[in-house]
Amino acid sequence: MMPGKAQVLLAHPGTQYAPRLAAELERHGMLKHFVTGMAVTEDGLLGAIDRCMPAGLRRRWENRRISGVPAARLRTFPRLEWNALCQVRQGLAAEQVFFERNAAFQRVIPDAWISEASHVIGFDTSSWLLAARAQQQGRPFILDQSIGHPLAKEQVYASLRTRFSEWAETVPRKGPEDIAREQQEHTLATTVVVPSGFVRRTLIEHGVAGEKIRIIPFGTDLALFQPAKTPAPGPVAFLFTGTLTARKGVPVLLQAWQEASLHGRAELWLAGSGRVPPSATATEGVRWLGALSRPELAATMQRAHVFVCPSFFEGLAQVQVEALASGLPVLGTSASGADEIVVPGETGFVLEPGDVAALVAELQRLAGDSDLRSAMRARCIQRREALGWLPYGLRWRDLLGGYRQDHDRAGRHVVESIAR
User: Fold this and answer.
1) CA-CA 20 to 30 A from 154: which of 69, 177, 257, 390?
2) Is 10 helix (H, G, I), strand (E, B) or coil?
3) Listed residue (273, 381, 264, 284) closest to 328, CA to CA
4) What are residue 361's DSSP bridge partners?
5) What angle do CA 97, 20, 48 make, to 5 degrees?
6) Reduced to 3 states, what is the DSSP secondary structure of residue 66?
7) Is residue 320 one of the residues assigned to a domain?
8) Strands (E) located in 130-278
9) In the predicted model, what is the mean pLDDT of the chain?
10) Helix pair angle (128-136, 94-108), 10° resolution
11) Structural Rg of the chain based on CA atoms
12) Do residues 23 and 125 share a domain?
């Protein structure tokens, strides 16, 4: 371990963006252990086997494949993940299954791995036990909070269930025990890292001290998400991708699309999984693309012209970052995290969630103004380097570097006080 350099235990039972954080910490020489459920590294035995598999089988491992993290840093507990996936396939309630997986995951991490680290980083909904263990060993615990406060989320969800009754089953309820565990994570965390000002506001509104919150927006894979050489011909294509739920704003988008009356001039493409009401599938001018792999999504973004993310509640919807990197102007909301990455009037527009009239106006404006679309596309391309994972990693490096210096200064102060 280099003197003064942070050495991090990073723990996440699933996938999400944790492998990218692990890779960036490794880039800066700060990763001690990356602990997860199931993963495949490029230099490990499974990685060698994976490269020999047929393309169809390799696709099934797509979200478990990790680049930039050596096998020597990876610690996995695949049985926990496999058991959870099997239980969900058998029809058991996913919420209970993943709670039990998350609890077991936190327990199996050895004390030695915590003591070897200078910092412990965990993720919301999977860190209430890990945070307490880090505190017991005197290690700073950093909570990576991927979405807004659970109480704020429940308030939004209650409103959505009333407003969009046909979509109510897409808006699950969170139990009070789950909320209490997340609040425990906030209390135990020395620092809370969030991806957007929206998340920060929801945390402060529900009692988390603002001074311990840091904003670090997500990045994306700039090698995968690239703009097309020239804009695609044909009608203007507005693309949405994500789970087809009320939280993501899909019913608002479909209503706005109908009111915008863009038939013949534009199309709305919806990509993602989920059950939608039968009435939604009859909307004219809509193409339902189904779930897409990441390479398929990147290719689809090269054929689209504008990205739409009318979400009611997020952390920072990463598909917006991917869209901007692909040269697509983004119509986002203040709740989608768009404030962090969209320059209003230059790379897109930021609307209030649920504002159908405003969304109609922007759909019509972008469908009818090719010069505006071209100017925004050019601006997106100019700014794309700021959307990669490298800036994300640099922000984490700066946070951990400053944190270690502060921790060392505090330690010296204690030693000097004892000496006096």
Assistant:
1) 257
2) strand
3) 381
4) none
5) 85
6) strand
7) yes
8) 141-144, 191-194, 213-215, 236-241, 266-271
9) 90
10) 20
11) 22
12) yes
Domain of 332? 236-387
Distance CA 13, CA 76 (A): 9
pLDDT in tens, 14-30: 877 999 999 999 999 99
HSE, CB side, 13 Å, CA atoms: give it for residue 417.
6
Q: Are 34 and 58 in contact (CB under 8 A)?
A: no
Mean local confidence (pLDDT), 385-402: 95
Distance CA 141, CA 127 (A): 9
Q: What is the pLDDT of residues 231-252, one digit of tens each?
A: 999 899 999 999 999 999 999 9
Task: Tell me the per-residue pLDDT of 140-150, one tens digit each, with 9 for 90 and over.
Answer: 999 999 999 99
Question: In sequence order, what E strands does 216-255 have?
Answer: 236-241
Neighbours of 364 (CB within 10 A): 17
Same domain, 400 and 355: no
This model's pTM is above 0.85: yes
Is 397 found in the same domain as 336? no
Query: Tokens representing 138?
Result: 């005197």
